[in-house]
Amino acid sequence: MKRKFNDTGLCVPHRHYMVDTSAKIEQIIQLVEAGEYFTINRPRQFGKTTTLQLLSTQFNLREDYLALNLSFEGIDTDTYQHQERFVYAFLDMLALEFESLDLPELVRFVEQRIDQITNMPALSRFITKLVCEMPERKSAVLLIDEVDKSSNNRLFLDFLGMLRKKYLRRDAGKEDSFHSVILAGVHDVKTLKAKIRPDDERKSFDSAQDEYNSPWNIAADFKVDLSFAPLEIETMLRDYTREKGIQADIPAIAERLHYYTSGYPWLVSKLCKFIDEDIVPQREDKNWSVADVETAFKMIADEGYTSTLFDSLAKNLENNRKLYELISRIAIHGASFPFTITNPVISLGLMYGILVPSERGRCRIHNRIFEQRIYAHIMSEMLQAEYGEVNGFRGPEFYTAEGLDVGLILQRFQTFMKEHYSDRDARFLEREGRLLFLSYLRPIINGIGFDFKEPNVSHERRMDIVITWQDKRYVLELKIWHGPKYHQDGLRQLSDYLDTYSLNKGYLLIYDFSKNKKYRQEQIMNEDKQIFAVWV
Fold it and tell me: For labelling alongside 233, which of 196, 201, 321, 348 has CA 20 to 30 A away?
């Protein structure tokens, strides 16, 4: 069977090209060997299921461990409403796992008792007996995927409470239990709170008053980075090129893949899949290049393409208005916020894989692909609702043999602002000015180019925009006019920013809110950099 890049479900080494994650697996193994109970909470399609499978495979090759890899994905809502059905479903999953591991004695051990175990106390006692039945007294490791499918369910919290109590009694030397438990899902079950009505007469398995204040507060911190670093991406590319017998600048391609994806596992694999199955087959030369990554990025960022991950991304924004507003301010308006994880909106953005902390501790969009998808989604709604008059300025004069005429775009935008918004007050322009320009720029570059926004924290409230057009890049800075001194500082900062892209030419769009402002243009030489500035 020919291997391929996988973009659906579990990754299997003999069927798929995979990143070598052995270093990550080793870090998790150390947690298990230490007897820790912990959660792996990461966004959708971040490699959780594959990680659990690789981990369980590793342990089941050893003589001292037995890993039981289960998933709660198939448990329906009705089962979660009845304790007896839930317990039966859990035991049935255990029996099936023992069967797949070719352990008929343990299959019989479960099946002989499954009808008598109908509640959490009985399940707890059964687990104690089960771990004592492990062949050669192997340490049992329980792995459960998709645990948050019903994380708002009281019965699930009872289950967590039972495991928590067994963990504490195990450490106290009072009973046997699983050596380690790993729960995987999008939500962090460690932070779940049970909402118990005062008049609720039902008794939980653990009657302690604070049992459900933190049902999984025994969990160790999980600090393993599941995203792919450039060097890790290289391992997959080397495997692919070796099998295909092709040439590629692997370090450069891996760096570019990471540049667009920030190592988000599904995105890395999807870009490679586009190159392997859609781009390379169209030509004679089968060797990969960095340009292929650029083409794949255009395909995945195309507004006519979607996937379950991108659908989920849009849904999470639409269903959480505060998150939508925060992301809009970051992605569209260039706002900068400290990454404060105790802020529930920021925490939600992190959980969904939308937000991560920057090196300076500020909120940033996780990766450039998400940035483009979010930008397109929000701008589409804004253009439809508020800025229709801006959306109609795409013309052939903006495109030349050398690339994109950014200077002309700025000149035309200046004319547009003078004709349509010269009578607006400074407060409106300060609030909407950036959005107006982004709305103006969008139809001009849409479909061929992209613009990435880099917010900066400064008195001038700068926003650096990097426009990618075909194989060229243009750096454009938006800022508010605060006088000559800050202007000179801004020119130096823009020159330094141009150096990071090895460019000698940049562009400056200055919003002047003073009453006596002039709509002017200026060619500026700053050190060895040529900067074209336009005032609006």
Answer: 348
* pLDDT at residue number 201: 44
Please, where in the chain does CATH 1.10.8 lie?
230-301
- Sequence letter at residue 409: I
Residue ranges, CATH 3.40.50, the chain: 22-191
Rg (CA), the chain: 28
Cα separation, 40 vs 34, in Å, equals: 16
- The identity of residue 194, as a single letter, is A
Handedness of CA 407, 412, 414, 417 (dihedral sign): negative
Q: Using an 8 Å Cβ cutoff, are 51 and 25 in contact? A: yes
What does the block give as tokens for 29? 């193994």
Instruction: Report whether 354 contacts 310 (CB < 8 A).
Output: no
> Given pLDDT bands bounded at 50, 70 and 90, which one contains residue 457?
very low
Residue pair 196/206 in contact by the 8 Å Cβ criterion: no
For residues 415 and 100, give the distance between their C-alpha atoms in angstroms, rounded to a whole number: 71
pLDDT in tens, 330-351: 888 778 899 999 999 999 999 9
Torsion sign over Cα 247, 253, 254, 257:
negative
pTM: 0.86
Rounded Cα distance between 148 and 151, Å, is: 4
Backbone phi, then psi, for 316, in 5-degree steps? -65, -35
Question: Tokens standing for 239?
Answer: 């495997």
Q: Are 326 and 378 in contact (CB under 8 A)?
A: no
22-191, CATH topology level: Rossmann fold (3.40.50)
**Better pLDDT: 482 or 222:** 222
Torsion (CA) 327, 329, 335, 340 in degrees, nearest 10: -40
Cα 475 to chain centroid distance, Å, stands at: 26
- Identify residue 231 by its one-letter amino acid code: L
Q: Count how many Cα atoms sit within 13 Å of the Cα of residue 129 in the half-sphere of its side chain.
A: 11
Q: Name the one residue in this structure whose structure tokens are 């709604």.
A: 381
Nearest alpha-carbon partner for 235 in 255, 246, 245, 250: 250
DSSP code of residue 421? S
Give the sign of the dihedral formed by CA 9, CA 353, CA 32, CA 122: negative
**Beta-carbon-side half-sphere exposure of residue 459 (alpha carbons within 13 Å):** 8
Give the number of C-alpha atoms closer than 13 A to the C-alpha of residue 237, restricted to the C-beta side. Answer: 28
CATH architecture label of 230-301 = Orthogonal Bundle (1.10)
Extract the tokens encoding 204.
């939980």
pLDDT category, 470, cuts 50, 70, 90? Answer: confident
